[in-house]
Amino acid sequence: MTERAINSYLPETECLQKNVILAARHSLNAGGKRLRPALVMEFCRVCGGEAASALPVACAIEMMHTFSLIHDDLPCMDNDDMRRGKPSCHKAFGEANALLAGDALAILPGEIIAKAGLKGTIPQTAALKIISLLGERAGIFGMIGGQVIDTENEGEKLPENVLLEMYRMKTGALLDFCCRAGVIAAGGSAELQLAAGIYAQKLGLAFQIIDDILDVTADEMLLGKPVGSDRESGKFTYAAIVGLDKAREEAARLTGEAVRALSVFEDSEFLVGLTGMLLERNY
Q: Burial of 118 by CB count in 10 Å (0-12 exposed, 13-18 middle, 19+ buried)?
């Protein structure tokens, strides 16, 4: 359902902007876990909401996430040639088209959620809250802010607390949006929004630490990009600083705390299973 919906929001390619639309589709349809849409949909469900209310938000956040991947891969950032086992957007369509495709995917989410509010698919007040939250979590004190810290400190060994704060912003902020936005779309209480945020904070840190571990240990075919790219680009990751064993222990601890945060939600078995699966993943 989410796959069809995501593509339905992109315009047809029979227009002057064809190449940029194709570039956006290339990255949106390159595979991936679809973790963020799943979190939106599931948190809405466990709070008693309708799937129709969550679906526009789920599509919007996958676009925002894909924008960040396209721009992360650019030569001025991580300069990665592969993403999810396929040529990265700028390798397939050129830097200019990749830049513009990313820009388009960053702007479209606000339009999607606003129109859902205007149509009544999402209550208008909820839509406004979700748009505001998206701006906060994706912006300078969220995902983009985390990327700024990462870019400006490349090759530097950051203190552990600063590194974890960067992870919270760069990875955790959008996960926080997903979980909270699902609750908001369902009309969930402030207490449930807080619990969703605690879950997302723990999950985000665990997720990034596992990514660090996989950058050293994963099978390149499964990972979909070169193994060891963080080390080669001079990045000091959590796993590099504390070692693989301690990194695994910390990821497991954070995962346990994330699962405990789900205790206030009814029928959360799927989320519990998903959280455990993310700890054990190999890509």
A: exposed
- Rounded to whole angstroms, the Cα distance separating 161 from 139 reads 21
Handedness of CA 66, 35, 200, 235 (dihedral sign): negative
| Nearest Cα residue to 111 out of 180, 64, 176, 178 | 64
Distance CA 188, CA 191 (A): 8
Q: 67-100, pLDDT tens digit by residue?
A: 999 999 999 998 999 998 899 999 999 999 999 9
Q: What is the 3-state secondary structure (H, E, C) of 94-137?
A: CHHHHHHHHHHHHHHHHHHHHHHHHHCCCCHHHHHHHHHHHHHH
Residue 165: count other Cβ atoms within 10 Å of its Cβ. Answer: 16
The CA-atom distances, in angstroms, between 33 and each of 77, 205, 281, 282 are 23, 17, 11, 12
* φ/ψ of residue 131, rounded to 5: -65, -45
For residues 208 and 247, what is the distance between their CA atoms, to the nearest angstrom? 10
For 187, left (φ over 0), alpha (ψ -120 to 50), or beta? left
pTM of the predicted model over 0.90 = yes
Contacts of 164 (CB under 8 A, 6+ apart): 205, 238
